[in-house]
Write a structure and sequence with these properties.
Blueprint: H1 5-21, H2 42-66, H3 83-100
């Protein structure tokens, strides 16, 4: 597994090309079948891409909060570990949702 989306795309295209090389094509039923000698499947490639998306999304959210640019207020580097403010915001959000019902 690799955390670079380019590597996952390369492995995915390699799998598609290996199926096309023998004139089979890839179908949804072939997602769990190995296409290389190192136990790679298209399901694993898709999983890698989904994990990459979540990780890069979290990294973008963190960097945007720490270095917001010309507009906005920068948070401290350790802001994800500030339990008090996160719990208070979550509690107020839950209270607002309950009041709407």
């Amino acid at each position: 597994m690799c955390l670079l989306p380019n590597a996952a795309l390369y492995v995915g295209f390699q799998g598609i090309f290996s199926y096309e090389k023998v004139a089979l094509g890839i179908a949804i039923g072939d997602v769990g079948e190995e296409f290389t000698t190192d136990d790679m499947t298209m399901a694993l490639v898709w999983t890698m891409l989904c994990v990459d998306t979540v990780l890069y999304g979290l990294l973008t959210w963190y960097m945007d909060s720490v270095k917001p640019g010309p507009y906005g207020q920068a948070r401290p580097i350790y802001f994800p570990f500030l339990v008090g403010s996160s719990v208070a915001k979550l509690a107020s959000l839950i209270q607002i949702c309950i009041m709407k019902e």
